[in-house]
Structure to design on (291 residues):
């Protein structure tokens, strides 16, 4: 099934998936779990509940789809010359990721690039399998490739090092161009991604932070965040964990959106507030680290 031949089926499936999200949201509002946790809280907290985590995929923009699980994101970018996948999840969810792509009407053999935001197993764990099965080139920022070579996880194979990105690099596939930024601190690299998404043809600037919650390299993290803050006009947060941008909550609003209403993912003030929060956290940790 190609990008063009699957278009009609894809539109129908997206409508069904969004309807499922809307109905699920109505049900959860009336009946939370016994401990009072919302459905979204359960998805974040019950990370080992495999069946709960396997949520349906859904369309967010004309060229951007969510194909992740309840607590961990994976994004599919569509272009005029193939697909770009952002993050590969990890077992036992790799088959669910591929199934999600197919349910949306796309062929995983059309994935030309697999971009890994950082060198933690939950983000790169499925990369080697996807690389070997479907043939995309795997790209990660230089610091994380090096970190992964020095300290690979025992829970997943390391993918072949196809592309090494550095801060400021770009990647063009068909009608899409992505720009990459380094955000060290959570890991040594942190592949952050700037791209354009479209809502009924209207363009918006979207951004993926390659890694948040810095663990070290606090000065470098603060400097990188300040550089990102200077990028003009970021309007959409495309996080690599859904709770970092209320992705699933916004998806329900998107499903209920009426003609003429704003897109719930277009929230520049929310993204700016997130950057401020992350910078303040890094500054606090840097101060605590000082002798």
């Amino acid at each position: 099934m190609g990008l063009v031949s699957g278009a009609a089926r894809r539109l129908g499936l997206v409508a069904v998936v969004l309807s499922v999200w809307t109905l699920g949201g109505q049900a959860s509002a009336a009946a939370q779990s016994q401990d009072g946790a919302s459905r979204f809280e359960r998805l974040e907290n019950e990370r080992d509940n495999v069946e709960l985590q396997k949520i349906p995929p859904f369309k967010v923009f004309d060229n951007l789809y969510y194909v992740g699980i309840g607590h961990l994101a994976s994004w599919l970018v569509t272009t005029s010359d193939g697909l770009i996948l952002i993050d590969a999840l990890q077992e036992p969810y790799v088959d669910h990721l591929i199934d999600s792509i197919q349910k949306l009407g796309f062929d995983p053999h059309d994935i030309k690039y697999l971009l890994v935001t950082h060198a933690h197993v939950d983000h790169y764990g499925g990369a080697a399998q996807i690389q070997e099965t479907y043939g995309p080139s795997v790209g990660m920022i230089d610091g994380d490739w090096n970190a992964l070579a020095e300290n690979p996880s025992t829970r997943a194979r390391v993918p072949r090092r196809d592309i090494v990105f550095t801060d400021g690099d770009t990647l063009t596939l068909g009608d899409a161009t992505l720009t990459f930024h380094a955000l060290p601190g959570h890991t040594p690299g942190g592949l952050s991604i700037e791209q354009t998404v479209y809502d009924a043809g209207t363009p918006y600037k979207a951004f993926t932070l390659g890694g948040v919650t810095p663990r070290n390299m606090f000065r470098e993290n603060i400097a990188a965040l300040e550089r990102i803050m200077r990028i003009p006009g970021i309007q959409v947060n495309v996080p690599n964990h859904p709770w970092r941008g209320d992705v699933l909550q916004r998806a329900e609003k998107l499903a209920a959106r009426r003609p003429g209403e704003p897109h719930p993912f277009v929230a520049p003030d929310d993204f700016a507030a997130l950057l401020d929060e992350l910078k303040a956290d890094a500054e606090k940790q840097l101060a605590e680290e000082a002798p």
Residues 7-30 form the longest helix (24 residues). The chain has ten helices and twelve strands. The radius of gyration is 18 Å.
